[in-house]
Amino acid sequence: MEFDMHQVETHVMEKDLSVVYTIDPCVVEDYINTEEHLLARDKYKVVSIDLQYVGGHPGIDQKVDVARLCVRYHVLIYHYCLATKPCDHFASFLNSPNDNVWGSTKKDSLVELTSAIIDPYYKNMKKDAKKNPASWHKAWMWRLDEAHLKFAAKNVYTCYEMHMRIVNMRECLLPIIDEGSSHQQRSGGKRHKKMIK
Asked: What is the pLDDT of residues 70-79, one digit of tens each?
C-alpha cells in the first residue's frame, strides 16, 4: 500500500475509517496535533494505541515496527521502523499521563471480544487477514499490503470503540459524587474508608 490516506470500512454503514499510513514524522505530528485538538473538548480523552513489535525479547530488546493510534474514526498507522527520522511529538504523546489509553496485548481474545461487544462483522477479522500465518509477522517490517493495513486499522479502531463503550456505560451507571473518587460512601453524614486487606 502507498503511504497516503486510505478508507477502511467498519460495521457502521457509510462510516469508514479515515486511515493515514505514513513514515513521515511531519504527517505524524500533524495527525497528533489534530487529534489533541479534538480531544481537548472531551471529558474522557480516549486514545487507542497498539504497537506491533518485531523479534527480540519483551521488555529487553524488542523494536517497534508499526504503531497504530485511533481517536473516533481517525486512524494513524505509523510505520515506525521505516520512518525517515524520529518524531519527538509522537514519543511525548505516547507518554502523556493525561490521556486514557486503551491498548491491546492479548490478540487472541480481542477478536472474540470485538465480535461480542461491537458487532459480529469483526468475527473473522484476524482469520481473513492471515492468509499465510508463517509470513504474517515478517510482513510488518516492510511496506504494508492491503490485508495488513485493513487489519491494523480495524484492530486499533475496535480497541478504541470497546473502551468508549466502557466509558459510556460507566457514566450511566456511576453517580457523580466527587470527581476525585468513585469509592466514597456516606452514612449519617460520616465518611467510612473501605479497608483494603
From this structure: 888 899 999 8
